[in-house]
């Protein structure tokens, strides 16, 4: 049993849940340090004491055998670090070198390519709902629709079509027909895509089925319970 202390600086209603799921699946002990979003739905200032950018998740690893302490930010990097240092048996990796590289690719892809157009669509939908008086509301809506039409809606489709085909060609998962770190990391943007109605089950049946499948993992439920005990509501 490891004597290292792993702390997850976790923000409610955020992508930080994936790190809990990852650690639970690898049966690693960890502590959750919970933070609550403020009225502006931003992370509280205290998070900046852990890492200057103040974004969640942040992982803190205290190596008891030495005075080494690592503070890690960026979900993809956190995942890669955990795979390299704490998944020696390759439970969420793949023994095949090419497949392992593909997993690594997805760890960069999630935040680098998939998340940005989804986030732009989300911001535009919020702009359209903003309580702006007429005629500014009309102009705001037209402007948001134009950006969506010229860039983000098409880009979201491009990304989702890609993932749909990848899952179809990889026996229901992202890599090698089995659960890997890539599935856990991509769960958040893809679940949000359905929840925010940027994707529909009829258009993306493989992604919808994949989400159902991976959420049946025991580690999904155990990590959800831990998040709930720390104030999460799903
Ligand atoms: N690319 C970063 C993004 C981190 C990020 O933006 N996290 C959000 C939570 S979903 C956050 O902390 N938001 C709080 C804020 O913006 O104040 C990652 O993958 O970890």
UniProtKB/TrEMBL annotation:
Domain (GST N-terminal) ranges: 3-90
Domain GST C-terminal, first and last residues per copy: 96-234
EC number per UniProt: 2.5.1.18
The name this protein goes by in its record: glutathione transferase
Source species, domain of life: Eukaryota
Record keywords: Transferase
Major enzyme class: transferase
Gene3D superfamilies given in the database record: 1.20.1050.10, Glutaredoxin (3.40.30.10)
GO-annotated molecular function: glutathione peroxidase activity; glutathione transferase activity
Catalysed reaction, written as an equation: RX + glutathione = an S-substituted glutathione + a halide anion + H(+)
InterPro entries in the cross-refs: Glutathione-S-Trfase_C-like (IPR010987), Glutathione-S-Trfase_C_sf (IPR036282), Glutathione_S-Trfase (IPR040079), Glutathione_S-Trfase_N (IPR004045), GST_C (IPR004046), Thioredoxin-like_sf (IPR036249)
Family statement: Belongs to the GST superfamily.
GO CC, alphabetical: cytoplasm
Pfam families per the UniProt record, alphabetical: GST_C, GST_N
